[in-house]
Amino acid sequence: VTQECCVQNAAREYAKLYAAEAETLEGFGEVPEIIPIFLIHRPANKIPYATVEEELVGEFVKYSVRDGKEVNFLRRDSEAGQKSCTFQHWVYEKTSGNLLVTDLQGVGMKLTDVGIATLAKGYKGFKGNCSFSFIEQFRALHQCNVYCEMLGLKALRTTHQKQRKATPTKSKNLPNSSTVKKMVPKKAREQRDFISSEH
């Protein structure tokens, strides 16, 4: 419970800095807000600690990528979703890729129940509550939008694409041709699986 409060309120501080920068830009508009969460002590209760936060009324939506399997059109198409993903990109760049706010979800521009992923060593003495693999997944899956461009954030895809281009070059140099032969049927199976899942 204490960690939940620490994580959400730390993310809230980053969101305030993001808002201060974004709100100065012409045409950026409303900025997502991470609502505060409070820890209360109830000594007479069987569960002595609890968290309290503002009740969010409306459609609850997950805006950010938690893993490669989660695809949400509202993340890509809505203003709140795009600005939430830009917030992730902004935090990632400001912390030199050491920290990422994850699980951005909520109602409209009000977000709650967020997570933070840090590299294994943490970031400035702070350790997140999510796997550092989320940082790798974000770097691979994030697609910049108009708000990323407005903030002048650097595209992440170029680095990822260069890494992917380097891999086939190495496989061509493999002396064992049987390895290559084994890979072809696997690709064919994956293609068939992809086609069948579309129908």
TrEMBL record:
Boundaries of every Alpha-type protein kinase domain copy: 1-156
Q: Where is the composition biased (Basic and acidic residues)?
A: 187-199
**According to the lineage, what is the superkingdom?**
Eukaryota
What Gene3D superfamilies is this protein classified in? MHCK/EF2 kinase (3.20.200.10)
**Compositionally biased, Polar residues: which spans?**
168-180
Q: Where is this region: Disordered?
A: 159-199
UniProt KW Transferase keyword: yes
Q: Which GO terms describe its molecular function?
A: ATP binding; protein serine/threonine kinase activity
Fetch the Pfam families from UniProt. Alpha_kinase
Which keywords appear in this protein's UniProt record, sorted alphabetically? Disulfide bond, Immunoglobulin domain, Kinase, Serine/threonine-protein kinase, Transferase
Name the coiled-coil region(s): none
Q: What's the protein called, per UniProt?
A: ALPK2 kinase
Gene designation per UniProt: Alpk2
